[in-house]
Design goal:
The complex is a heterodimer of chains A (96) and B (546). Chain A has helices at residues 46-60, 79-86; strands at residues 9-16, 22-26, 30-32, 41-42, 62-70. Chain A is of the alpha+beta class and 96 residues long. Chain A has one domain (9-33, 43-63, 71-93). Chain B has 17 helices and 21 strands. Chain B has helices spanning 6-28, 33-42, 65-78, 101-110, 143-153, 224-238, 249-256, 258-275, 281-289, 310-319, 347-360, 383-392, 423-436, 439-442, 504-518, 526-533, 536-543, and strands at residues 45-47, 52-57, 62-64, 82-85, 90-93, 127-128, 168-171, 185-191, 195-201, 213-220, 320-322, 328-333, 344-346, 364-367, 373-379, 407-408, 447-450, 464-471, 474-481, 493-494, 499-500. In chain B, strands 16, 17, 18, 19, 20 and 21 form a six-stranded mixed β-sheet that branches. In chain B, a hairpin with a 5-residue loop joins strand 11 and strand 12. The relative contact order of chain B is 0.09. Chain A binds chain B through residues 15, 17-22, 57-59, 61, 63-64, 77-80, 83-84, 87-90, 93-96, and chain B through 26-27, 29, 32-33, 47, 49-52, 80-82, 95-99, 338-341, 344, 346, 412-414, 418, 421, 423-424, 427-428, 431, 473, 475. The structure holds iron/sulfur cluster. Iron/sulfur cluster is lined by residues 409-411, 415, 417-418, 450-452, 454-457 of chain B.
């Protein structure tokens, strides 16, 4: 997985099992809805966190965890992930 | 309208109970996600970009006021107040919580609805012409046949694990409004000495689009299910399971060739005919009885004086059709307004529309595969009143069949598989061309937009097709011209290199300018003009200055 990733900084994201909400991995509070609190993971730490997330998958009530790439300023690089982070509603489309 | 029999109700209620237990076991940790995923998919529950998504079947597009009110209730109580009508006569809720799914499914069951077979490698919701039973030229109403196929295929053990998903559509007119030639099986009701069916097989879109080929020129009513079973038997045994991209029946038919495939099916059909009981006339009639027209008063030719109102007149022109019963009109409700994504409807609109249908159309509503709705039986004398109500809830956009009535998939705004956004492109097209007031001059034209090669937005069969691509992290859009899902179905041809999101609208505008300039007269359609002049003038207009 790590091979395909180009960035130097990452956050882990997933969906909450029960609500389906987008969540991010934070070191202090586990999986949270708040992107700001998400743990910034450096490339060299990836393996450690991948193992940790897989090991804790069951008790953490999250699904589909994966790594989101950030640029060196800490911003999400991919449009898909930016849309996912921002969330969306029917009203967001009024007069695009 | 069809009403559940005892068997249908039991089946749906049992399935709700079973899935409720599975959800409980998932939440308690007794089931892992890997174990649970196939179970949730069998119940129409996906995980999308932001959240879970529940897809609810609307069999052959038929919906009652009561059902629409329930969809409104569900969208308000358990979702974010709206739903999305899809290109396969389903509705999707984009934000349900796993914990609420049992309640949602119980509520759906109360109004004879469910999410069964809206996902997975089974026979999906059978679709039909949305004008079924309403037109004088129809040979026979396709809905009873859809219902017969639905009954036969629901939980059919042999067809629950097909190599891939399987889609069937049925029409009863010569004009194809259901896109049967881009379905795994397309069924057309025809009249020879008796009424029966022409069967087409192996159509589909996605990354390898194919137009279905005729496999049988005539199958009798009593043998329809046996013939379908023969096709599915062959597909089940020979369809590829090793490669998801080659698993659809279209690939099998194309690899074997239609003659070889047909021979296998015919041999199988002969065998099955000896073993299987043919459909009995009495059973067919029992189902047909559910689909009788409500008692419409025959009122002769009516030409009421309507108040002078240009918006109403435009709506009358584009959004109504003649009903087979004199004195009535079919009203098409556009879900392609400036305000919402194509196919989306909020709960208030659902409630108002349900009430309108109750008052004026015997509580009947239809859903079209082009992501619009139909109110099937409106008295001509009620038209102005109906328009006023629709207009007050933003459901009277007078654009049915015009270029702003585009089909559009959810794209990257919702879909986990998308490579680009599609909804903003549809919205930009609407805003741009409404402002230019060009669409009336252009006349009927189908623009279809998909956010990835899976083609849920049917871009392959758009007169103008738009496919969203990811080019090094940027959204680009590829244009195809000349596609159609009608009786002369064809796959559009790629016009050239793709356009960025800021270039795509001017590109469409140039294409339309070429069409307007080159067509012989205003009745010559886009496809006819393209056939006459070829791609070159369009390519010159788009690429010559590059
Ligand atoms: S075409 Fe692609 S982006 Fe659009 S709904 Fe289908 S899978 Fe999603």
């Amino acid at each position: 997985m790590a091979k395909k990733l180009k960035a130097n900084i990452f956050v882990y994201s997933a969906n909450d099992l029960i609500s389906g909400d987008v969540v991010f991995y934070s070191e202090q509070n586990g999986w949270v809805r708040d992107f700001i609190s998400a743990k910034r993971i450096m490339k060299e730490e990836l393996e450690k966190f991948q193992e940790k997330v897989s090991a804790e998958l069951k008790q953490n009530n999250i699904i589909n965890p994966y790594l989101v790439e950030l640029d060196d300023d800490g911003k999400i690089t991919k449009l898909r992930e930016r849309i996912r982070f921002k969330g969306i509603n029917i009203k967001d489309f009024k007069n695009v | 309208m069809y009403r559940y029999d005892e068997f249908d109700s039991k089946l749906v209620i049992n399935r709700v109970k079973q899935f409720t237990k599975q959800i409980k076991r998932r939440i308690s940790g007794d089931l892992t996600e890997d174990e649970f995923k196939p179970l949730r998919l069998m119940n129409g529950l996906y995980l999308q970009l932001h959240a879970y998504m529940l897809r609810v079947a609307i069999p052959y597009g038929e919906l009652s006021s009561k059902q629409l009110k329930m969809l409104a209730y569900i969208s308000k109580k358990y979702d974010r107040g709206y739903g999305h009508f899809t290109t396969r006569q389903n509705i999707q809720f984009n934000w349900p919580k796993l914990i609420d799914i049992p309640k949602i499914l119980r509520n759906l069951a109360k109004v004879e609805m469910h999410a069964i077979q809206t996902s997975g490698n089974c026979i999906r919701n059978v679709t039909a012409d949305h004008l079924a039973g309403l037109l004088p030229e129809e040979i026979e109403d396709p809905r009873p046949w859809c219902e017969i196929i639905r009954k036969w295929s629901t939980f059919h053990p042999e067809f629950s694990f097909l190599p891939r998903k399987f889609k069937i559509a049925v029409i009863g007119c010569n004009e194809d409004r259901a896109g049967i030639l881009v379905h795994d099986i397309g069924i057309k009701i025809i009249k020879r000495k008796e009424i029966g069916f022409q069967i087409f097989v192996g159509g589909g879109q996605g990354r390898s689009p194919f137009i279905a080929k005729k496999i049988s020129d005539f199958v009798s009513k009593k043998n329809l299910l046996t013939y379908l079973e023969a096709i599915l038997n062959i597909y089940n045994s020979l369809g590829r399971r090793d490669n998801i991209y080659k698993a659809r029946i279209k690939i099998l038919v194309n690899e074997l060739g239609i003659e070889h495939f047909k021979k296998l099916v015919e041999d199988r059909f002969k065998l099955l005919k000896q073993k299987k009981t043919a459909l009995k006339g009495i059973e067919i009639d029992k189902i047909k009885n559910y689909f009788k027209l409500p008692s419409l008063e025959t009122v002769g030719k009516i030409n009421p004086e309507f108040p002078k109102n240009p918006n109403f007149e435009k709506w009358l022109k584009f959004n109504t059709l003649n009903h087979k019963v004199k004195g009535y009109k079919i009203v098409l409700v556009s879900l392609k307004s400036k305000n919402y994504p194509p196919g989306d409807m909020d709960y208030k609109q659902m409630i108002h529309l349900a009430e309108l249908a109750e008052k004026y159309s015997f509580g009947e509503i239809r859903v079209t595969h082009e992501q619009n709705l139909v109110i099937p039986h409106i008295k001509i004398t009620d038209l102005f009143e109906v328009w006023k109500i629709l207009d007050s809830i933003t459901l009277a956009t007078p654009n049915i069949g015009l270029l702003t009535d585009s089909i559009c998939c959810p794209g990257m705004d919702y879909c986990a598989l998308a490579t680009a956004r599609s909804i903003p492109i549809a919205q930009k097209i609407t805003n741009f061309f409404e402002a230019k007031k060009k669409q009336d001059e252009i006349g009927p034209l189908k623009i279809k937009i998909s956010g990835c090669i899976n083609a849920c937005g049917h871009h392959h069969v758009g007169n103008i097709g738009i496919l969203g691509l990811d080019k090094n992290g940027q959204e680009f859009y590829q244009i195809t011209l000349g596609g159609s899902s009608k009786e002369n179905a064809s796959i559009g041809k790629i016009i050239g290199s793709s356009f960025s999101s800021s270039e795509i609208i001017p590109a469409i505008d140039k294409i339309l300018d070429v069409y307007l300039e080159k067509r012989d007269n205003k009745n010559q359609t886009f496809i006819q003009t393209l056939e006459q002049i070829g791609l070159k003038p369009f390519q010159e207009a788009l690429y010559d200055n590059n």
